[in-house]
UniProtKB/TrEMBL annotation:
Residues 295-332 are annotated as: Disordered. Gene3D superfamilies: 1.20.1050.10, Glutaredoxin. InterPro entries: Glutathione-S-Trfase_C-like, Glutathione-S-Trfase_C_sf, Glutathione_S-Trfase, GST_Omega-like_C, GST_Omega/GSH. This is Glutathione S-transferase C-terminal domain-containing protein. Residues 153-280 form the GST C-terminal domain. Pfam families: GST_C_2. It comes from the Bacteria. It comes from Pseudonocardia humida.
Length: 332
């Protein structure tokens, strides 16, 4: 979550520094190969959460192992402070920045998650979060589980791309543009764009269960990772406070529908999400105090979205339970 502050006080996200692809056809320096890479994520980060969900829905756990950085970091980078000896058990590193500097000793851009790290060399192959999950769907097909859903169906890609572009600009990145704005004008512009887009998405989802077609696609994954964090951090911490998610009936029902779908809610750890945002963003929350709320029990209440039809996994099937080492605590 690196960024620069423009002269106008608007938050501007820095481009990722190692935006390479891992491909099946030899068109990049990094080939698709089972066991070659470790996906490093953090439970707190929405961009990383996208990769966790897609990896799980497609059944790539056997081909791509996963390391989980803790929720706290400082200028040294994300830290594996939840692992024994504060080190990733496969990569043997204490700070994710070590893998970035193995790839480039002079690396000075943002050290971000998700990151695909080559296990043998310890080098980051890619931190290109925008393309990574699409490549999970299109480049790693040889390792998809039986019954894996098509999250990026070719016949809907143009529409999915269009929907995702607006969600990224106004919602995914929009909450950050609210939270890190340093002038009133910049904040208000981002705030208005955010809620205008949420209103439009509410209207779109009022009569359809999913964003594109009648199945879950990449577009739903990308919207949901922001919505699931909305009341816990964005509403208060980032001043996105026109309404809570629980006060937007369509989006709240849509979010609960996905939360209760295997592969979504079972990737969420609200305690670590709050610990990260309130504990790391000291310019926004100088005290570092982490709030106790909100009450998360509503995520498991009936949503009624089945009445809209749709087939969550299309012709596929739900994923099995998470790996033991990757399970999150039950809702408190």
């Amino acid at each position: 979550m690196t960024a620069t502050d423009s002269d106008a006080g608007a938050f501007q996200r820095e481009p990722v520094g190692l935006d390479e692809r891992i491909t099946a056809d030899g068109s990049s320096a990094w080939p698709v190969e089972a066991g070659r890479y470790r996906l490093v994520v953090a439970r707190a980060c929405p961009w990383a959460n996208r990769s966790v969900i897609v990896r799980r829905l497609l059944g790539l756990e056997g081909a791509i192992s996963m390391g989980i950085a803790g929720p706290l970091h400082d200028e040294r980078s994300w830290h594996f402070h939840d692992d024994p000896d504060n080190r990733d058990p496969v990569l043997g590193i204490e700070w994710l920045g070590e893998a970035y500097r193995k790839a480039d000793p002079d690396f000075d851009a943002g050290i971000t998650v998700p990151a695909m790290v080559e296990v043998a060399s310890g080098k980051v192959a890619s931190n290109g979060f925008q393309q990574l999950t699409l490549d999970f769907s299109t480049q790693w097909t040889a390792f998809h589980r039986e019954g894996a859903p098509d999250l990026y169906p070719e016949e809907h890609r143009a529409e999915i791309d269009e929907v995702m572009a607006s969600i990224y600009e106004d919602v995914n990145n929009g909450v950050y543009r609210c939270g890190f704005a340093t002038t009133q004008d910049a904040y208000e512009e981002a705030y208005r764009a955010l809620f205008a887009r949420l209103d439009a998405l509410s209207e779109r989802l009022a009569t359809r269960r999913f964003l594109v077609g009648d199945t879950i696609t990449e577009a739903d994954v990308r919207l949901w990772v922001t919505l699931v964090r909305f009341d816990a951090v964005y509403h208060g911490h980032f001043k996105c406070n026109r309404q809570k998610l629980t006060e937007m009936p369509v989006l709240w029902a849509y979010s609960r529908d996905l939360f209760q779908t295997p592969g979504f809610g079972d990737t969420i750890d609200f305690a670590k999400i709050k610990q990260h945002y309130y504990g790391v963003h000291d310019t926004v929350n100088p005290s570092g105090v982490v709030p106790l709320g909100p009450d998360n029990s509503g995520w498991l209440t009936p949503h009624g979205r089945e009445e809209l039809g749709g087939r969550p996994f299309g012709d596929g099937t739900p994923p099995g339970p998470p790996l033991e080492a990757e399970r999150v605590p039950p809702l408190a």
